[in-house]
Amino acid sequence: MINNATSIWGRAGLHSRDRLVSLNGVAVATWPELRAKLQALRLGDTVRVQVQRPSGPFETTVIVAGFERPTVRIERLPNATVAQRRLAEAATF
User: Fold this and answer.
1) What secondary structure does DSSP assign to 45-92, as a single string?
2) Would the N or C end of the chain have less CB density within 10 A of its end CB?
3) What phi, psi does 53 have (nearest 5°)?
4) Which residues pair with 26 in a beta bridge?
5) What average pLDDT does this structure show over 35-63?
6) Going by C-beta distance under 8 Å and a sequence separation of 6 or more, which residues neighbour residue 22?
7) Cβ neighbourhood burial of 10 (10 Å; 0-12, 13-18, 19+)
């Protein structure tokens, strides 16, 4: 299963159940390590990603690209339930 086939990770062939082994040859064992490595990346960087799958090891290259931030608009609907109206009133953006 591909996490998001249109993302840079999905286009590189990475799947949501892959177990990350290393980035650029450096082992990644914890979430803080992964987060630090991802935060250090810049647009245009090329990253070698090694993962483990049930079928065996897989390696690919990912070129870091920007992303589109979705635009969301909240509209009040005339037929909204009481619970929906409360959620809308409590929302802070």
Assistant:
1) -EEEEEEEETTEEEEEEEE----PPPP------TT--HHHHHHHHH--
2) C
3) -125, 165
4) 23
5) 92
6) 28, 48, 49, 50
7) middle
User: What is the rounded distance in angstroms from the CA atom of residue 12 to the CA atom of residue 61?
Assistant: 7
Query: Distance between the two ends of the chain, CA-based, in angstroms?
Result: 33
Give the Cα separation of 10 and 1 in Å (integer). 10
pLDDT confidence of residue 68:
67
Q: Provide mean pLDDT across the span 6-12.
A: 77
Edge-to-edge strands, sheet with 46-53: 26-27, 19-23, 46-53, 56-63
Within its chain, how far is the Cα of 55 from the centroid? Answer: 23
Q: CA-CA distance, 56 to 36, in Å (whole number)? A: 26
